[in-house]
Design goal:
The chain has 339 residues and is an alpha/beta fold. Helix content is 47%, strand content 9%. It has one domain: TIM Barrel. It has a 7-stranded parallel β-sheet with strand order 1-2-3-4-5-6-7, sandwiched between helices. Helix 11 (244-248) links the parallel strand 4 and strand 5 (254-256).
Length: 339
């Protein structure tokens, strides 16, 4: 069974020969950059550099699937008007301004959205990845989700306060970000993506209460999913136990969860709704500052729990040791060798 066959069978709820292993968030790791010879910030904007770093995750780190569309979650926000801070080899792009902090009356999704920012480079990156990977490996696109994009545009504090005091502002902003994301997700599928991951950390329970998630975020995610031409995976940071059932009722194909989540409960909630689970080896502690043995044990525990896709619980820190990351593949291979 090829990595692509394994991945797509598992995503559709079918049996596979083993659990796919990889990373469904960002893996802009310094050691991978140096192995492939393409470093950031070039690998943030140049399609060849982006493609080679993406392929290093597959060839060097042993991931069963390959990421397109850069190493951060700012691309849609940038195309909608946010300025970005300067990246470095160990520092991803971040939001430097909130262009609609004073009001959203003029906020709209531009007709030329996909010709702005890094999207032309992403288009070429997809072409390179498909040419190299052929039909043997899954390729996915990724961007920020609708609520995180809205927070980037108006400011996180303002958006969170508005969920209580100015619901119309929140809904107006989410209408635009959802429209933009529909274009972006379909852009990815039209250029060869097999699935798309939306990362929406600002909508996590550490910042937004579950009632507000149901009121504002769920409808936006559902609208996106209903208007795109392929499967969507939703990643939200932190402990999402309280919103996982709602996440799984938006029509998404998969959820990506951190180590703070009760994996057994997440699997039960997701599987009862036909949704697959990615995770949940700690990227912040185990993979970043743990020992290789720590990483191996945590990966093994996730496999024993029955995770559908063995992956870091969040984006890999740039200075994560490659030896730690390799333990995901080692644990998966040995788990199924002894099964």
């Amino acid at each position: 069974m090829t990595p692509k066959e394994r991945f797509l069978k598992r995503l559709s709820g079918q049996e596979a020969d083993m659990t796919p292993v990889g990373c469904t968030t960002a893996y802009g790791v310094v050691e991978l950059m140096r192995k492939c010879g393409y470093e950031r910030p070039l690998a943030d904007t140049d399609p060849v550099a982006m493609a080679q770093l993406a392929l290093a995750g597959h060839a060097v780190a042993g991931f069963d699937w390959i990421k397109a569309m850069g190493w951060d979650i700012t691309s849609v926000s940038q195309a909608l008007g946010c300025s970005l801070g300067e990246p470095a080899i160990d520092l991803q792009y971040c939001i430097a301004s909130h262009p609609f902090e004073q009001g959203v009356d003029d906020l709209e999704c531009p007709g030329d959205l996909l010709s702005r920012g890094r999207f032309p480079a992403y288009k070429e990156q997809f072409r390179i990845l498909r040419e190299v990977a052929g039909n043997s490996a899954v390729i996915f696109g990724m961007s920020e989700g609708p609520f995180t994009c809205a927070a980037n545009l108006v400011g996180t504090t303002k958006l969170l306060r508005a969920t209580m005091k100015e619901p119309k502002l929140v809904k107006k902003t989410l209408e635009v970000t959802a429209e933009a994301l529909i274009k972006v997700v379909n852009f990815a599928f039209s250029n060869g993506a097999d699935y798309f991951c939306m990362a929406d950390p600002t909508s996590g329970c550490d910042l937004l209460n579950p009632k507000a998630w149901a009121t504002f975020v769920a409808p936006a995610v559902k609208r996106i999913v209903e208007n795109v031409s392929g499967p969507v995976v939703l990643h939200i940071c932190g402990n999402t136990d309280k919103i996982i059932p709602m996440m799984c009722e938006t029509g998404i194909a998969g959820i990506s969860i951190e180590e703070k989540v009760d994996l057994k409960q997440a699997l039960e909630a997701a599987h009862s709704r036909g949704v697959r689970v990615f995770g949940n080896v700690s990227a912040k502690s185990t993979l970043f500052i743990g020992t290789p043995e720590d990483c191996y044990k945590e990966a093994w525990a996730a496999l024993e729990a029955g995770v559908d896709f063995l992956a870091p619980g969040c984006g890999l820190a740039p200075n994560s040791p490659l030896e730690n990351i390799l333990q995901l593949r080692r644990a998966r291979d040995e788990f199924f060798r002894t099964a």
